[in-house]
Amino acid sequence: MKGQEAAFERSGVSGMNLRGGAWTPARSGRTLEVKSPYTGRALGSVPDSDAEDVDDVALAAAAAFPAWAATPLKERVRPLQRFSEIVTRNENELSMLVSRESGKTPAEALGGIRRGLEVVEFAVSLPNVDRGGALDVSRGVTCEYRREPLGVVAGITPFNFPAMVPMWMFPIALAVGNAFILKPSEKVPLSACRLGEWLLEAGLPPGLFSLVHGGRGTVEALVDHPLVRAVGFVGSTAVARAVHSRATALGKRALCLGGAKNHLVVAPDADEALTVKGVVDSFTGCAGQRCMAASVLVVVGEAERFVDKIVEAAQKLELGKTMGALIDPSARERLRAAIDTAEREGARVVLDGRTVKAPAGCGGGNWLGPTVLDGVLPDMSCARVELFGPVLSVIHVSTIDQALALEQSSEYGNALSVFTTSGAVARYVAERATSGMVGVNVGVPVPRDPFSFGGTKASKFGQGDMTGPSGVELWSNLKKITTKWALSPDANWMS
């Protein structure tokens, strides 16, 4: 681990804004430091952009847009195809970069990159799957639709998937003819810089993909900019709600994905091996820092026998090898405080990640081991609040309906999974769940393209979903054209 982290830091580079195909600093000269979650040491820096920097980027994007919108779809996807090939050739390099700035293990980082590439592949396929349509609707009257881009659009992405979530947005937005501006999380901006380099190498015309780095002020300037027509966001519920409100108040299109409190329901007849692995992978993967992570484990009746097995399996994970670090010190302290609160409220800490030591050479990092809280009651804070870390709260119920009632009463609606060997139970749960994504014997029920990603309730603000056909709708408009060339000899209501 120590040698791996040293290699990370030797390869560290700083980034800049990407404007009109050129790499530029912020006008103010201010920068933001990027720190390693593994060690706490500096990895590099990026510009701290203000409204003037955002304006520069937006103007360059707007200048590039008309020619790109006029380019045939088949030609627009060719740079994306080359980009996919470049990323695939360099996926190990990118996974190390993602790992060192986000705290993921390299294997987790690689998995996210490959998931992002699936969206690129979907975007490249659009000439074959989104061909438009025309129909003779009456005698001598034809209706058709054409898909048109919006113009300059923007994506604001989180720290937990530095490469994947941007690739959920810009490939489709570019393919349908927009110019795209990315504002990555200031905690993980270096991977986005590499994506920008490779898009230019792939032959994407300058100005069509832009990068603007910064914090909250940068986000607000980007959302407010009059040239930005639509905004995609992934992050916490509080910020998703704020971005959506700000954008829509200005008449802009916005889809903002927020937080989660995902429930895993384990029926008494569940398969032990499938359940234990699925639960542990779900709540510890990416150190629990993903919106699809398990947060509440609801064991039904005799399914309580699985809890000890889950604790035993989670106990075997090794920090720095099979589980990564938290993003920053504040995340670690927030989670430790949440565990303390759970204890005071009466939960039992049956696996305590607070006592786990940091990997050798990484004492300055942000480490917390897997934690399991048993005997949790529905009104406890750990059962209701999104913790966003490797902490699993276990609630015991007697029936499937009681388990469903917990999920249905949650303010969040991102994901629910049920573990069972009964098709009838699986269908019963899937039909009654209020979450937007449901899994059966799958701990992380992420839809794969062409199926779209998105939740319900406080997990999503705006219409539609991210990725897949819903992603196409997000970044484009349909123009409908009705045509008539001559009078019809036999009149009807339309003529």
CATH superfamily (homologous) name of the largest domain? Aldehyde Dehydrogenase, Chain A, domain 1
Specify the overall morphology: globular
- Name the helicity range: 25-40%
Say how many strands there are: 22
Strand proportion: 15-25%
> Any idea of the CATH topology of the largest domain?
Aldehyde Dehydrogenase, Chain A, domain 1
- Helical stretch count? 18
**Largest sheet, order of strands side by side?**
14-15-16-13-12-18-19
Structural class: alpha/beta
Terminal residue distance: 76 Å
What is the CATH first-level class name of the largest domain? Alpha Beta
Fold and architecture overview:
By secondary structure, this protein is of the alpha/beta class. It has 2 domains: 2-258 and 459-479, Aldehyde Dehydrogenase, Chain A, domain 1, CATH 3.40.605; 262-440, Aldehyde Dehydrogenase, Chain A, domain 2 (3-Layer(aba) Sandwich), CATH 3.40.309.10. The protein has helices at 2-10, 51-69, 73-76, 78-89, 91-102, 106-124, 126-129, 164-175, 190-201, 216-224, 237-249, 272-284, 306-315, 329-345, 381-384, 400-409, 423-432, 468-474; strands spanning 17-19, 22-24, 31-35, 42-47, 133-138, 141-149, 152-156, 179-183, 209-211, 228-234, 253-257, 262-266, 294-300, 348-351, 371-374, 391-397, 412-413, 415-419, 437-440, 456-457, 460-461, 476-484. A 7-stranded mixed sheet has the order 14-15-16-13-12-18-19, sandwiched between helices. Strands 9-8-7-10-11-21 form a 6-stranded mixed sheet, sandwiched between helices. The longest helix is centred in the N-terminal third of the chain and has 19 residues, at 51-69. It is globular and about 75 Å long. The termini are far apart.
